[in-house]
Amino acid sequence: MTIVPVILSGGSGTRLWPMSRPEMPKQLLSLTAEETMLQLTAKRAHGEGFAAPIVVANAAHAREIEEQLQAAGVTPQAVILEPAARNTAPAIALGALAAKGEDALLVMPSDHVIHDVAAFHAAIEAAMPLVAEGWLVTFGITPDAPETGYGWIQIGEEIGHGVHRVARFVEKPQKERAEAMLAAGDHAWNGGIFLFRADIFLGELGQHAPQMLTAAKDAMSRARRERSCVWPDAEAFAASPSDSIDYAVMEKAGRVAVVPVAMGWSDVGSWDALHAISDTDDNGNVHRGEVLAVDTRNCLLRSDGIRIAAVGIEDLIVVASGNDVLVLPRGRSQEVKKLIEAMKK
Amino acid sequence: MTIVPVILSGGSGTRLWPMSRPEMPKQLLSLTAEETMLQLTAKRAHGEGFAAPIVVANAAHAREIEEQLQAAGVTPQAVILEPAARNTAPAIALGALAAKGEDALLVMPSDHVIHDVAAFHAAIEAAMPLVAEGWLVTFGITPDAPETGYGWIQIGEEIGHGVHRVARFVEKPQKERAEAMLAAGDHAWNGGIFLFRADIFLGELGQHAPQMLTAAKDAMSRARRERSCVWPDAEAFAASPSDSIDYAVMEKAGRVAVVPVAMGWSDVGSWDALHAISDTDDNGNVHRGEVLAVDTRNCLLRSDGIRIAAVGIEDLIVVASGNDVLVLPRGRSQEVKKLIEAMKK
């Protein structure tokens, strides 16, 4: 059975502002390595056992995506350029319609980090027998903190080696509930990585969100194609409701399984998250770019342009990019959104 | 008796890096007002009672100085462009040689702030009778902190209304001694502002530093002149020893007086000093340029280019200029020099 990676590159998040911007979002940046997060994602499911990937992306990033994949030595079978953002369920529908019905789709956000790729591959291998039988599989990240920013999954009975029925999806919880789930030990984070047959997914979508399926089908049947690029019809796709795969399909479908896996996963959802997963120097600092730091501890100092010169600071995040420099204390990087809001005014 | 301001613009200090740089030092910047510190200095001794000033400056800044003075509506009688830096005594000698012997020279650093100009003028007026008699007068800043970064002056017996004999000059003291002097109440800071007749100063210089006087005379007699600009001969001036007016003349001369004065003086010798003398907003912040601050307190945030975006920070100094951004805690701005040293490596 062929595994086709479906890489979702629709995000335009602002949580890593000022480096991440609408024209150059997080997945297109080199945040954790020399390679960009998109390149790392593509290479994580490349080579033996994997077919050429399908990338679903914002049309504005077409050229950058093609260049980055080429530089990484990955040749996509299709780059589907969304005329509008409609959340993950319609995006995956476009990908599924570009694949063969019997393909197993490995759906991956393009802006996550997985340190232990072997563990990821082992989890995929464990999932495949059930995928072949028609199950929708999600990967449940072994939690190590009471995160309130993620959805959680309660792990049910084991239905295959290393594969469990999903007992329940839990939406982003309050702190207390997150702590209880972490303590209970039978919950995992929903990392947004999925594995299922294209035809099974489309069948479930037709059942639970038929408008979405119709819109995706219309958009693909009237798509413009050039080389591996696909431009779904804008008017047809605009008719699709906007919803996540979790709400539209996973929480409603019958045969939904989870493979719990500890694989050094991070969604790098904030500057604090990036600091947490980065190698630090002897003073606990993470530097990148032109940085000069004297008597500085436990800071994240990054620049893609101007020089950052620091003396005597502790527990600060300083990020310079383009014509902006961001300064905030560690632990408060979620508040970047307050700045974005203030800028809109 | 004519008072000729002699404005010393030789400084190329790095304590206000990254805004102050060798090519654009502190005195040429707008730090405390719309006007530059040079402009504020020139206007402080302009109009009734003052002759056109003599400016002694680094030749590299000739054009900028002329433009700034013109914009301030001040026409100098001479701009003497030093071919090399030889500290204040030789610089003042050049100025004195450009003036008439009977002129009273009001020597002022170009990079200090004086909030109470009326008090300054009153102090000048008090000093004039003794200046006419041939005294060298310095202005003693009423101290309000045990500063270890300034020289101090012990105030002796009153020899004229508001004018005292200098009992003693005290070099930059240790903290304990500074505290004792502050408590004693009979000491003032040496602000580097002087008033004396040109001929008296040159006479004392000839007595206590004859090489310096000879070099200055040679340099001026062989100077190139164009409009109000004067380029002293480089070779001749290079022969001058380098020394401050305090060491070379004031501490050695006989008839030296001090006028104690409280006039809201600051040498703006650091970013902390600038924060201390600036108006703050309701949150204790001092902003200038493109700054966006959310939930931020007691910070100095300045930019002359890129945007500074801050959330949740306190007691920090962030200064962006050109291709650099400086970040350090308030109270540690003297440590900018550590960065400058690190950059040289």
Quick synopsis:
With about 350 residues, chain A is of the alpha/beta class. Chain A is built from eleven helices and 19 strands. In chain A, helix 6 (about 200-210) packs across helix 7 (about 210-220).
Describe what you observe in this structure.
The structure is a homodimer of 345-residue chains. Chain A has 345 residues and is α/β, with parallel strands linked by helices. Helix content of chain A is 30%, strand content 29%. Chain A has a five-stranded mixed beta barrel. In chain A, strands 14-16-18-19 form a four-stranded mixed β-sheet, with helices on one face. In chain A, strand 1, helix 1 and strand 2 (54-58) form a beta-alpha-beta unit. The longest helix of chain A is centred in the middle third of the chain and has 16 residues, at 117-132. The radius of gyration of chain A is 20 Å and the shape is globular. The model of chain A has no long low-confidence stretch (mean pLDDT 96). Chains A and B meet through strand 17, strand 18, strand 19 and helix 11 of A and strand 17, strand 18, strand 19 and helix 11 of B. Strand 19 of chain A pairs parallel with strand 17 (307-311) of chain B.
